[in-house]
Each structure stands twice: as structure tokens, then as C-alpha cells.
Amino acid sequence: MNKTNLIKGYIYTILSAIIFGCMPLMAKxxxxxxVNSISLVFLRNLIALPSLAILALLQEKTLKIxxxxxxxxxxxxxFGCVLTPVLLFSSYHYLATGTxxxxxxxxxxxxxxxxxxxxxxxxxxITLISxxxxxxxxxxxxxxxxxxxxxxVILSLASGLAFAVYVIVLPYFQxxxxxxxxxxxxxxxxxxxxMLIMCLxxxxxxxxxxxxxxxMCTLFxxxxxxxxxxxxxxxxxxxxxxxxxxxxxxxxxxxxxIGILAFQEDFNFFTIxxxxxxxxxxxxxxxxxxxKK
Length: 293
Known about the structure:
The structure is a single chain. The model has no long low-confidence stretch (mean pLDDT 84). This protein has helices at 3-31, 37-60, 67-72, 74-91, 97-104, 107-118, 125-139, 150-173, 180-201, 211-239, 241-247, 250-263, 269-292. It is built from 13 helices and no strands. Helix content is 79%, strand content 0%. By secondary structure, it is mainly α.
């Protein structure tokens, strides 16, 4: 891989983490308008479809369905855009969001572990060091006063496992002819269909109650599905699942910064130390690649 693509891969992944970190702030205003978490996952994929279609047409000049790529897109859609958010949002009913996020972010370790056990990948020392630093940094965000409900722990860990599977399978379904906005469009399409079935099956479909709510949902869909999800998919395609999963731990740091700036939330020494550990780990994981170049 040339240096330009390598740099792009890191930039895409970091930008996706920052946008994902802003997601709870946007979701808070949408929930206040009557939309529940499951419906928001459905809407963010449905509303993003026209923009993804236009971008795919501009990039690939076609939206023609090819049977194999179309069917393959259902797998990453299921694990990354359906199971992951549904399980994580469900865990919020039992755990504080910060605590649930900590358990969810076991997924970088799971990506590395699954790669070693099932894909016969070698564990590089720098990857192990970065992984440990990320885990330690995320752990420092934990509030010991929060109660650990077993159901919430299981749900948040399951969301981490689902996302780890998504990160691992993603590069296998992205090829030279099946990537970019074309691939993202069909992943979003599958996600919208799967989430609609889930919403209707559980009788939990709720829609915004005002024009302001619809505008917020549209902004949410464009920034998350047409923005963060696409950037993460491109980043993973260029630098691989292990590196992209470690870099994505910048997401909770963004959430902490947003909380401090928007909600005047408290921060302390442990928050600062955790943030520094995650940022340092993200820099370390990139060093070997750029040394080679």
C-alpha cells in the first residue's frame, strides 16, 4: 500500500471516531422528541439512503445490483449496523452510558484475539502495547459509584463482540469493485430493512413528533451513516481491522470533551490520564507503518 492511502486510512478512521463521539449529544435531542433508540437506528439508515445513492452514482456511475456483493453486504450490516447499536442502546437501560461504553470497548482486544485464534495472525509487540494502553485508558473513565447490573454488562459486552465481528469481516467483503459509497449504500439498505423488521416485530417504531425532530434525525443520519460509518469502512479497508479498532477508541474521548463543553460535566486527573493513554496508543499503532514507508 502506498503512503497516500495509508495516511487516508488513518485520517478516515480518526474522523469517524470523532463523529461517533458526537453521536450521544445529537441523539439526546432526538430522544426528547419522542424517538426511541431502536427507531433512531432504523431512521439513521433509511434517511441516509438518498445521499449515499447520489454519492455512489457520482463515484461509480451506477447503482446496478450485483448479486454477490449485494448479498454479502447483509452480513456486515447485521453485525455492525443492527446488532451492535441495538445491544449497546439496550444496555443503557441497566448501566450508565459511560460504564456501558467501557464494556463495549473490549472489542479492539477481541479483534486482536479473534485474529490470533481463528485467522492465524501474528501479534506484533506494538499492537499488544497499544491494545493494553487503550484498555487501561478506557478503564480510567469508569465511575466506581455506578452499579453493575449483570444484564447490562452482558448486553454491552455482546455489543462489543458484534462490532468485533463486523470489523473483522468488513475487509473480506470490500473489494476493488465493491467498496466506497456503493458498498456503504447497500449496507445501509440492508440495515434499514433489518431494523424495520425489528421495529415492527417488537412494536417499537416511533417517529419524530415535530419538524425540528425530523431535521435533527436528518442531520444525525447524514453525519453518522453517510459520514462516520462510511469513513470507518474506508479506513478499515485501507489499514485493516486491528488498527482501525484501536484508533476508534478516540470516540469516548470525544464524548468526554463534548460532555465537558456542552453539559459542563466534571473531569478529573483520571479522565485526563485515560485520554492521554488512548491518544498515545493511537499514535504508537501508526508508527511501524510510517517507519516502513
